[in-house]
Design goal:
CATH superfamily: q2cbj1_9rhob like domain
Number of strands: 13
Mean pLDDT: 97
Helix content: 10-25%
Radius of gyration: 17 Å
Structural class: alpha+beta
CATH architecture: Sandwich
Bound molecules: 2-oxoglutaric acid
Distance between the termini: 18 Å
CATH topology: Jelly Rolls
Largest sheet: 5 strands, antiparallel
Number of domains: 1
CATH class: Mainly Beta
Low-confidence stretches: none
Oligomer: single chain
């Protein structure tokens, strides 16, 4: 992971990606290194066990928090996403060493069992909407402390958040979003996606053809 992190820092993040407005987004589409990270057999095997052989990646993001980086409030991803039906599995993989001090992701086990209303977020946090605090049991939160390369899986409804980064160390994680091919993206050209966005099949086949797809980047990239 040290070698991979170095390449991410020198070859990936400093160069423009498929969304010219955000070099942290969707780099699995233009860098084989990132594609191969999100298509690791350790990840795909677990995802296949949960939802079957056919898996399409529709998004990825380097969640990078420099020292002082903002709190990400409690939320369920499905609240923000244009996918139908709302069924998604996410992977969050540590690129840096991720501890409570540099703002690891925190989750509430079991919170995926109900849809939680979202309300306008407090000032100073990273998102515009957050889960209604009346539905968040902070005492049940679990810190996802991870060594570089370790990852956890969660679905579109799991409540999760991360505190402000109060340490002097960066915290970088790579999240990737996987759907079975019967899940449709409602607008692939609009935020949170971008013009000419495409999905990549990482396991099995796209037997439905509902979304625009592309090939993985070549092995030299
Ligand atoms: O990286 C974080 O702190 C939050 C990540 C997140 O919200 C996600 O991966 O859905």
């Amino acid at each position: 992971m040290n070698a991979i992190r170095q390449r991410i820092d020198t070859e990936v993040i400093p160069t423009p990606g498929p969304n010219p407005k955000n070099p942290l987004q969707a780099r699995h589409l233009d860098h084989r290194l990132v594609h191969d990270l999100i298509a690791r057999p350790e990840i795909l095997g677990r995802l296949r066990a949960l939802v079957g052989n056919d898996l399409v990646v529709w998004a990825s993001y380097f969640f990078t928090k420099e020292p002082g980086g903002k709190e990400i409030p409690w939320h369920q991803d499905a609240n923000y996403w244009p996918i139908e039906p709302p069924l998604n599995l996410s992977v969050w993989m540590a690129i840096d060493e991720v501890t409570t001090e540099n703002s690891c992701v925190r989750i509430i086990p079991g919170s995926h069992r109900r849809v939680v209303p979202h309300v306008p977020a407090r000032d100073g946090v990273a998102f515009g909407q957050e889960a209604d605090p009346a539905y968040v049991d902070e005492d049940a939160a679990v810190d996802m402390v991870l060594r570089p390369g370790q990852f956890f899986l969660f679905n579109e409804r799991l409540l999760h958040q991360s505190h402000r980064n109060t340490s002097s160390r960066r915290r970088m994680g790579l999240s990737a979003r996987y759907i079975p091919p019967f899940v449709a993206l409602l607008d692939q050209d609009a935020p949170p996606l971008f013009p000419d966005h495409a999905c990549v099949v990482v396991s099995g086949d796209d037997t439905f053809g509902l979304n625009r797809t592309t090939n993985p980047p070549p092995r030299t990239a």
